[in-house]
Amino acid sequence: MSDKNEVAGVVVVVGAGLMGTGIAHAFAASGFTTRLVDSNGQALDKALHGIHAILDGGVRLGKLALEAAEAAKARLSVHTVLTEGAAGASLLVETVSENLALKKAILAEAAPLLAEGALLATNTSALSVTEIAASVPHSERLIGMHFFNPVHKMKLVELVLGIATDEATVARSRSWVEAIGKTSILVNESPGLTTSRMSAMLGNEAMWMLQEGTASAEDIDTALRMGFNHPMGPLELGDLTGWDTRLSVLRYLHSTLGEKFRPCPLIIKMVAAGRHGRKTGHGVYQYDAAGQRVAGSGLKASNL
Ligand code: NAD
């Protein structure tokens, strides 16, 4: 590639699940010829349907011209064969299931087929970018590109540096992220990066406060929404994410970053009771059959 920060050429997104759908939409809608690859044809059908729904929704809401939506659809193709999707691409975004061996195998197979000097990105949430990069010959051109769900609404992308990632790769990655209308931050490879680490800490601390009877669940959430302008309080967010997921993240951070991430006993108790949050109809709050929060249902200090 001539210009080191050039964002041009074909983009291949490997993995057409929840994240791959959003990522492929972002590139296609931003003017890039985009190939979406998945070994599962049904996942591709679902992803294509999802992308069309986002584009059609944009048209309906008057946010996107009909021609722009149709052009984005035309720029997108789907493939079950990796070698077909990867051939000659300038950027590969790997977003298959969170499995180290799988990610390494896909990158090793695709890397030789990409355009010369192509950038390789992995959307891993928690695996080591350094370890993933060891699977490709030019590990200096591999970076973590951590998107947020739902991709079409969330502006942030965490760029994650592996040990070998070079400065040119960072600069080019920033340009790609900017080209799809998102904002990048740079993070050294570390457990929980910035966002998961901060969110885990906040949710854990909110649970400690609830356990100690510092304030009611409703008031702790209101404090963060009204006092800090957070869109959601940490307890309602934990109910949405799922306390089982929260607990496994906390356990991982506790084992890697130490005592400050020790999971609050109340979280362990809630998970043991099956109160995982919205998905089980009961977390810190209770939810009715329609998924609506039951007023006044916040866990009280007296029933902890
Ligand atoms: P998902 O399960 O929805 O999708 C994964 C896709 O990978 C599936 O469609 C599957 O068929 C496909 N796949 C599996 N093996 C494959 C192969 N050999 N070749 C091609 N495709 C293959 O998962 P997801 O939630 O989209 O997550 C994908 C990645 O993004 C993971 O690394 C995850 O940690 C990361 N991530 C997830 C989120 C989130 O909120 N879900 C946020 C940021 C990052």
UniProtKB/TrEMBL annotation:
Protein name, as recorded: 3-hydroxyacyl-CoA dehydrogenase
Gene3D superfamilies assigned: N-(1-d-carboxylethyl)-l-norvaline Dehydrogenase, domain 2 (1.10.1040.10), NAD(P)-binding Rossmann-like Domain (3.40.50.720)
Residues forming coiled coils: none
UniProtKB keywords: Oxidoreductase
Domain 3-hydroxyacyl-CoA dehydrogenase C-terminal: 194-287
Superkingdom per UniProt: Bacteria
Record-annotated 3-hydroxyacyl-CoA dehydrogenase NAD binding domain positions: 11-189
